[in-house]
Automatic annotation (TrEMBL):
The lineage of its organism: Eukaryota, Cryptophyceae, Pyrenomonadales, Geminigeraceae, Guillardia. It comes from Guillardia theta (strain CCMP2712) (Cryptophyte). It holds the Pfam family DMRL_synthase. One of its GO terms (biological process) is riboflavin biosynthetic process. This is 6,7-dimethyl-8-ribityllumazine synthase. Catalyzes the formation of 6,7-dimethyl-8-ribityllumazine by condensation of 5-amino-6-(D-ribitylamino)uracil with 3,4-dihydroxy-2-butanone 4-phosphate. This is the penultimate step in the biosynthesis of riboflavin.
Amino acid sequence: MLRILIALAVCGHAAAFAPSLNPGRLALRKSQPCPLKPAHLPAILSDKQHSVPAVAQQATKGISFPQLDGKGMRVGIVSTRWNAEVVNKLKDGARAGLKECQVEDSNVVEFEVPGSWELPLACRYMAQTQKVDAIIAIGVLVKGETDHYDMIKDAATDALMMLGLETGIPVLNGILGCHTMEQAEARATGDNNHGVWWGKTAIEMATLRATQMGKGPIAASGVEKKKVLF
Ligand code: DLZ
């Protein structure tokens, strides 16, 4: 009997410190406060807009998202012409993800650049001029025979991370680094289109920024988009 009692006590303790042993501890319950719900919302945001009901999770293949409200948010998409066929599918996915979050088409700003190497600088221009709530950088790097792939992949992704940390604007890494074009194609197609998740992730992170930092949504604030000259 004593052994059983000790075993039960140890299990309870282990579960308390190892949520992975007890996933129920992590699941949101209806009455729990939502992690994205702010203590004080900026005047521009209503409590309703930015509370995330735990019961309304949007299940997708790779990841589930809370119900997101991107109304009034302005989002940038910067994409490459290298590997345009796959990139365009990812871009369509990102637009669809944003639409699912109620981002209006007119609040999506798009820049195009030659290759993935150019993405971070173009994202920086976008962050500085277009006053966006989030930026999605999209490119496809396919490993060739030389080291070019590794040089671009690591430098570009590091630079995107730095840009997000420096500006505070969520900058999404939508660069697929693949060994074959088939791998890239598989990640840009159907319910495995990563672009859709990038669109939703952009709104989730922009919402987090708005609630934590009181910044955004930009489009609803009346700040003008700048004209793109080409
Ligand atoms: C040069 C190059 C090569 C070989 N491969 C790719 C690629 O697979 N995906 C991509 O986005 N860009 C590629 N580039 C172009 C570079 O990103 C960049 O545009 C050039 O090095 C000029 O700076």
